[in-house]
Specification:
Blueprint (H helix, E strand, L loop, with lengths): L2 E5 L10 H10 L4 E4 L8 H7 L5 E12 L2 E8 L6 H12 L1 H14 L6 H8 L6 H10 L30 H10 L3 E4 L13 H9 L4 E5 L5 H14 L2 E4 L19 H10 L6 E2 L6
Parallel strand pairs: 1-2, 2-3, 5-6, 6-7
Antiparallel strand pairs: 3-4, 3-8, 4-5
């Protein structure tokens, strides 16, 4: 089985619609794909309606969190999207995205970059506007050569010249909320140092003690020594280890299925989840 547990659609900052994403996942030879848009479940219905025969969809989200001034992302799988407290917190995070993005555009303009809010909003479309959309506008203006190049201290990285904080969850609260909604939590790309400051191994140990289920090890932003280090840490803490593409369509260079999750780990994730079930494909159509 080929299992990719971290992808994004136009419901947040990907370039494929949810329906296009699941069809692309099937075409890429995947058996299982997780849709994990940032702080939203808006893409779930479209993906579920289009899951091709032979593919299984795992519903989820990637939650924006912060601990001691360090941003981190928490992947949440197979939770009940209607659980009231968790739904309310996701809404608070989403509602802060527009004013935050506007403020970052304002900072860029103060730095002499002629980026327009209207263009950023157009790039985001119906998705939850965020830094990748601003980064794409910077690419269009030839300020940077790629979306990834915008995530540096010079521009949009945490603490960067144009960075603006937003409402984010405490990761311990995120774990509690996901668990209460019957879901499973995996810390996304925990040592992706090119993105900025990362949490310490002591922080990960504290999260594990609070109920964290796993850490994403095989990811494009982790080199081989980092993966080895994370596998050892996961072994010490009794955490599951996953792998995934973090696919964003044409916005990033990663390919669907570039990294995958072991079927036994996937099986354990589905066994732990009680809020929702994986959705087998039935030959969905656009």
């Amino acid at each position: 089985m080929r299992i990719d547990l971290h992808t994004h659609s136009t419901a947040s900052d990907g370039t494929d619609t949810p329906a296009e994403l699941v069809r692309a996942a099937a075409a890429a030879g995947l058996d299982v794909v997780a849709l994990t848009d940032h702080d939203t479940t808006r893409g779930h219905a479209g993906a579920i309606a289009a899951v091709p025969e032979g593919l299984t969809l795992v519903t989820g989200a990637e939650l924006s969190c912060r601990i001691d001034g360090i941003g981190l992302h928490m992947l949440a799988y197979l939770f009940d999207p209607h659980e009231p407290e968790f739904a309310r917190e996701r809404e608070l995070v989403r509602d802060d995205r527009v004013p935050r993005a506007r403020a970052m555009v304002g900072k860029l303009q103060e730095l002499g970059v002629p980026v327009a809010w209207e263009r950023v909003a157009a790039i985001a479309g119906d998705g939850s506007v965020g830094r990748p959309h601003i980064a794409e506008a910077l690419v269009e203006l030839s300020v940077v050569s790629s979306v990834s190049d915008a995530f540096t201290p010079e521009w949009l990285a945490d603490g960067g010249r144009a960075y603006v904080e937003k409402h984010e969850l405490d990761p311990f609260t995120a774990i509690r909320l996901v668990k209460a909604a019957g879901g499973v939590t995996v810390l996304a790309h925990p040592l992706a140092v090119k993105r900025g400051r990362t949490v310490s191994e002591a922080d990960i140990a504290d999260l594990a003690a609070a109920g964290l289920d796993g850490i994403e090890v095989d990811h494009m932003d982790h080199d081989e020594p980092t993966r080895t280090r994370l596998r050892a840490l996961a072994g010490d803490l009794g955490l599951l280890t996953t792998g995934s593409s973090d696919y964003h369509g044409s916005r990033k260079t990663c390919r669907l299925g570039e990294y995958t999750t072991d079927p036994e780990i996937y099986g354990e994730i589905t066994r732990r989840a009680t809020g929702a079930f994986p959705v087998p494909g039935t030959g969905g159509r656009p």
